[in-house]
Amino acid sequence: xxxxxxxxxxxxxxxxxxxxxxxxxxxxxxxxxxxxxxxxxxxxxxxxxxxxxxxxxxxxxxxxxxxxxxxxxxxxxxxxxxxxxxxxxxxxxxxxxxxxxxxxxxxxxxxxxxxxxxxxxxxxxxxxxxxxxxxxx
Length: 137
Hints:
Layout: H1 7-13, E1 25-28, E2 36-39, E3 44-50, E4 53-57, E5 62-65, E6 71-74, H2 76-82, H3 92-110, H4 114-125, H5 129-132
Antiparallel strand pairs: 1-5, 2-3, 3-4, 5-6
């Protein structure tokens, strides 16, 4: 038996979704980054290995790395249209975070034990608390 949903019911419950935002690493392609080189010396054809197999890439393109195991060639025009530079992106959240870090650093400068205060701040900022502390020698 095939279950069907009336079109008007389906349309009423359809919701727009946005893919989860995640950072990617962009590297300009150079021939040294090619995994496979075909053709000849005068006209080399470059490929990079991806999860989908080998993908053609040319000078002027970018390599987009979305994880340790997922990368693909990307045209610079697509990159400019689809992505923003997170380091240059100023959101209300980023501005608040910067203000909080600045306040913590000022408090550290006024403390009697600067090293302990900086270590405490590093502990808050570190995603791995064991890496935050640096032993003093």
